[in-house]
Amino acid sequence: MSGSKFQQAPHKLLAIPGPIEVTNEVLDAISQPPMSHVSPGFVKIFKECMDMTRQVLYTTTGMPFIIAGSGTLGWDEVSSNLVEPGEFVLVVNNGYFGDGFSDCLRAYGASVDHIRAPLGDAAPSIDVERALKKRKYKVIVVTHVDTSTGVLSDVKAIASVAKSVSSETLVIVDGVCSVASEEIRMDDWNIDVVLTASQKGLGTPPGLSILVASEQAIKVFESRKTPVTSYYASWQKWLPIMRAYDSGTPAYFATPPVNMIYAYHASLKQITSGLEERFRAHQKASERIKAVAKQLGYRQIPKKPSIAANGMTAIYVPDGFVPKDIIPRLTEHGIVVAGGLHKEAKDKYIRIGHMGTSVVDEGRGDIELIEKALKASVRK
Amino acid sequence: MSGSKFQQAPHKLLAIPGPIEVTNEVLDAISQPPMSHVSPGFVKIFKECMDMTRQVLYTTTGMPFIIAGSGTLGWDEVSSNLVEPGEFVLVVNNGYFGDGFSDCLRAYGASVDHIRAPLGDAAPSIDVERALKKRKYKVIVVTHVDTSTGVLSDVKAIASVAKSVSSETLVIVDGVCSVASEEIRMDDWNIDVVLTASQKGLGTPPGLSILVASEQAIKVFESRKTPVTSYYASWQKWLPIMRAYDSGTPAYFATPPVNMIYAYHASLKQITSGLEERFRAHQKASERIKAVAKQLGYRQIPKKPSIAANGMTAIYVPDGFVPKDIIPRLTEHGIVVAGGLHKEAKDKYIRIGHMGTSVVDEGRGDIELIEKALKASVRK
């Protein structure tokens, strides 16, 4: 499948829920000599990244913000640009990352209410409806896939219910662990912000914060009454820059991470060449890995298959085993996986990532390798 | 000089004041397959980056913060961690970047006073002394080299005078355009924070915010009375992470940009192999370029040689020429330079960067190429 002459150094398979394995084309792109961030060549690449990011999220009118940072920076963007101090935010919280986003919102002065789902569960949209009827929320925040548990939220249903109860409320999706591995149709589903990072489904090394805002979100931002409460994350600074690049003109606020942008561009070209096929490949790989894990006595954290992510698997280790023995065994068999992260079950489960080229390029044999390693992990 | 088998793609010489040309070793390192950010291999590389960053700044006790972002993010770190809302900050302002830092400080609630130097000049330390005697400042901020004008401030003298008048005032140096091209002795000179980015003297592609804080700065941070006013830039989040990596243990707040860290590591290894030699090489190259420019009728923006940076040259184009003709001519002759940035003289001058491998590796012939292109630029 790879047309690049670039050869990756031999290494163990990176099967954590981000960073993930990347293609030869991505590594070839990242190693190009840096060019000027205001040169016509770079402006073209950046503009194409904006357009392809829109494509991945099925939006024609969304405004992408692509900034040096980690996924977390997207939380700052939402908290400091779309919420004014004292305004109410509803967080649909199903784990570690819901807690983190809430912390961030509070740091910038928001009043945060929660709908909490128990470990392994997703909050039902009826709870969202009830909460929105009780109080006026400026924004509602949902983690699409909580990387700590692999729980997938039904963001389509939540956005639909939210907009029908309160059309002015902005729907924010934390898609760090879902963009390009789960379908998200921003325009059709009425989602106002999707924020993510480069190192998961987007198949690029970590180092880019990627966020797309709807026209409604931009309007809400532009009609703020109080000053933006951040600087590096401020859309007052970034919006003119993104608009300039979007119209083919360079502009300067902070130096863009040019090599990371080349890498992202190379990955987006591969991703947008077959988006629906890509989602299906993620589903297929996920089903295979989850089925093998089940046979071996591993137990899913998500309580139902319908709320389990397609880009990762979070599983309790079989009885009689502990992660601190299983993880090194998996490494011996060639795959690097992640330990638990959710505080209630930290030492009882492991997390496996299966996103991007590992699931799309079957010739790599990555899914077979994960299956083999899982089987070896519980052999006596 | 290069021992790497990696070959860069042919390209025009990047001679802007950042991003700069990088070595084959740096591009080889950035194109390694991503590894887990909590693996022992990555922890070792990150820890070595922290130690070598200390070496570059001649500090043994400073705490480095290395985060995905641009240099600007360092402003947010200072403004939201070291200054509490309403506290007074003195900005020694000699251009575009002093204005930017002030904006950032105000966004987080600081009360900002300025000492402004006219275009091409640096504020004398006597003015700093006078200001500090009039009012108690929490921090004083100095841009070491203002990338918009090439003016070099005497941060050693300013820190000395500041600490003698008000020992509790923290001295903050914006070293984005000076670290590794100008000498900075953090411990000896009593500097509390040096903030910078990866893409200038540090010879790495853009995408890393790098900041080192003194023990006094960390103490001031730890004795804050009000909550930190940012999230992604919050040391409450980052300090435990940096301390963990510093002691050889992984920790997680936001995913570090692993490939950027490999690249930074490769560059730091080259930089720390001969730091004083490197500073001399920058001085020598700078003198050569400035002398040639003078012969050709270009005129320095910095009013005296003693306040001209060694890593870049900002020059008014000769009479009868305009930058928008000169810049494409320079490109035709193989070098990419930057236009003006300071609002008072934007369309009258150009900026040339001469940092990192371009000045250290004489075998590349970069300085000769810049000289030749400059000569060709004014030929009738």
TrEMBL record, chains A, B:
Residue numbers bearing the N6-(pyridoxal phosphate)lysine modification: 200
UniProt entry tagged with the keyword Transferase: yes
Cofactor: pyridoxal 5'-phosphate
Gene3D superfamilies: Aspartate Aminotransferase, domain 1, Type I PLP-dependent aspartate aminotransferase-like (Major domain)
Single biological process term from Gene Ontology: glycine biosynthetic process, by transamination of glyoxylate
Gene Ontology CC entries for this record: peroxisome
Pfam families listed in its UniProt record: Aminotran_5
Keyword entries, A-Z: Aminotransferase, Pyridoxal phosphate, Transferase
Positions of the Aminotransferase class V domain: 79-342
SUPFAM superfamilies to which the protein is assigned, alphabetical: PLP-dependent transferases (SSF53383)
Cross-referenced InterPro entries: Aminotrans_V_dom, Aminotrans_V_PyrdxlP_BS, PyrdxlP-dep_Trfase, PyrdxlP-dep_Trfase_major, PyrdxlP-dep_Trfase_small, SP_NH2Trfase/AEP_transaminase
Single GO molecular function: alanine-glyoxylate transaminase activity
EC number: 2.6.1.44
Family label: Belongs to the class-V pyridoxal-phosphate-dependent aminotransferase family.
Name listed for the protein in its UniProt record: alanine--glyoxylate transaminase
